[in-house]
## 1
Amino acid sequence: MAERAIWVIGPIAWDTVLYISKLPSSGGFLHAREHQERPGGQAFNVASGIVGAGLPIRLVGALGDDIYAEKLRDAITKESLSVEFIQNLQLPTPHVTILVDDSGERTMVGMEKGLLGDLDIEDLPVQAGDIVVWPFWNDAFLPLFERIREICFLVLGSNALKSDRELSGDILVISNDEIDDQKTLDRALSHFTKIYITDGAHGSKMISKNNNLREAGRIIPIVDTTGAGDAFLTGVVTGQYLGFSEKDILELAATWASLTVQKAHSSPAAWSEVKTFLKLDQVNG
């Protein structure tokens, strides 16, 4: 039997990041203390984290026909990811400006139209037993979702609760900001086996019909929160693939996020760093 794969489907973008003391007031001006150009987008970030653990990853996304597409293809290859399932469109590549203030909080401004609605994924060669991850949901994914929902392990991320359809799957990973009220959470729990919720400094939790777990927030120096949610999702998927318990998955996800926000980058911290911090020497990869 072929080894089961992890498919990560979603945004790939180029990030222009400005580190500033605070957001300028209307009509104001300030100098950034640091400026970075770097690869990003939720799918790229999650895939780059998972591949570091030595797991069989398939990154699926779209790029345009400009200089940013070339930079992102180089970045994908540098991360030991394949471009086999990266589609090339005659459109601008997604480009995001990110303002990170002294608290580490980021404000994001999209500079180009997203390409998820133009992504053709219905015929992806997904196999029974594969884990399929959508870090950011778009209803354009529904044809593939319907085809594989009974045969694959499905993980959905942000924006899934805003779908026009009542989506269902194995795991939902969202931030606490996406939950309007208890009714929203109860409805989500009726459609997903497990829900992992991250809430920044307030910690994180896992909720299922049979279990409720909480991971306390950590007092850490925060440099850049850009990749926090993606790192948390990376931990959930990696732990699930490796057969970790629900408690250990939550700890892994929270640790990955906390290590990530202490550095100035979009992608999750290296697996080797996470593994060393948690003393997971018995885990291969």
## 2
Amino acid sequence: MLGQIYKRIRKEFAFRDDFDKSRGTETTRHVNRWRTGVGSTAVHYQATGPSDFARACQFLPPEAKTYPFFDLGCGKGRVLIMAHEYGFQRIVGVELSKMLIKTCRRNLSRLGIANASVVEEDAATVAFPDGPVVVFMYNPFRPPVFDAVIERLAKHQYPLFLIYVTPEHRNVIEQTGRFTTIFEDHDLLICQSGTSALPA
């Protein structure tokens, strides 16, 4: 019992993985949902693995790097950092937890990443630019918030590429009838919508 408690404390407060050690950042540590200060539809913070992000990006078209990149529920900003390193030109993190936003901005500042910003806003109401976008989600929230987010994404009138890691609620996406699956397995779903608006 004490061993399990120690492991939990170490995971949340002490441990840093190789990603953070090499960059001087803090994105590793798990944060329980109740500590984020966000409602019950939110999910705990957990960092995205670099291999998961790299695997997802290989299914995007080359021109996707020129599209705005949105991470809904960006947490401490690890995906924003990886999106910058991958070559995305405009990067936006959307987060409601003030605690996570503070850590995220500190991480971005420490690395001097100027083309990424963080907005404190509901993912279901955040404004997307008129044009193609890439949207990333690591299972950030549960229904009904998730339903509202997907409904909003389905209404985007331009090409939209959605990367969904740990796609627990993939059925909500499928039910819209607006998304075409590019890749799918147990841990990752990549789809697109608005293909008719793709530029020539």
## 3
Amino acid sequence: MSETPKFEVIDRRKFKAEEEQESNASRPAVSTPPEPGAGPRLVVSEPKPEPTPAESPAAEAGQEAMPEMPPAPTAEESREQKIAYDGAAQRLEDIVRAQNPAMGQQPKISFEHLVQQFYVSAMIQMGAGAQDGQRPRVDILGARNTIDLLGVLAEKTRGNLTEAEDRTLQTVLFEVRMAFLELTSMISMQGMQPPMPPPPGKR
């Protein structure tokens, strides 16, 4: 019988690593110390720095998911648009007042109007304003979103409101949150009530 042919295992990863090392000579190569009987030795280049959050695949996926926003308007464009908007709004008010002479000048929209709008929306979503004899329609999830929007408004305007504006916002936010707590407590109690026993004679 012929002797078993001798063969040599070539670790191609070594050659690939050496090629990368030659192409990037500015980075010193780091070699692992050989271990006795460990077989082929792999030469590893210096590890590349981790990608920044903006370069990570997750960040790229998030950027692809969100639509690209157009560039912000310039100050001149915003100024011209505001002038055109005010003119169109005034012409509309003149038309309405011509058809309704008894209607007075409409007040300018203020921060209190914005807070009041959120308050009315949240209360209607929690069933307020239903006519007598009608079952109130409750949108509890929509009410939560509206209340959370009031919370965002309070967070973003902190330190930039007058004392009266801040008092109005905090009072409205407290009231709608209390109404939400009462309503969710009622919903939980109704959902946890045991079924009513059948009337006598109908078992």
## 4
Amino acid sequence: MSMAAITAIIEQPDATTSKGLRDRFFMILLYDTGARVQGMLNIRLSDIQLGPLPKVTLFGKGRKTRIVPLMEKTAQHLKKYLLEFHADNASEEDVTLFYFVIRGEKHPLTSRTVQYILQKYGEQARQVCKEIPPNVHPHLFRHSRAMHLYQEGMDLTLISQWLGHSQLETTQIYAHADTEHKRRAIEASTLQDNPLYSKLNSARYTVTDEEMLKKLTGLR
């Protein structure tokens, strides 16, 4: 998704309510860290470090850990979230960062709840941003963040480390996807009577959105 699409989804929750504040911050942190959904759900207060260089420790597949720096604005949202949801247990470091309340009892947020949240806000945001796909899922935030970093010039090796990929080849799909995006843009802007049009050879490089989504979704 483009930055405009990501922003449209994140702006949907009503942050003046506790639930809206939680949902918005969850999506902000999901995008900023490029975390897998389980990595997000595993975050505890002890995994967060504020201060001059705010960061969060993520626990991923294969019990691997990675430390991810937080953007300044993300850290500001985090502080607001902590005041709202963890003011009474700030000293309890083993507490889950994200939770919901049923009959006065706190329960850790689940992947099913996260999927429902993203799908709901995705459908709402599609009313103002038509490019948002029908199925908005956590991995889409991860892929979008990685693609945006690549388009901004971050080296694929750094992106691979940042995503926690064990092999650089897994990250190469972002370079291929970006090249395909540029090819489509060039083809769309080239008139058919232009001598270069026959050189585009679009059939050779055509990758459908469905095929690309399957490949990206397969990057775990």
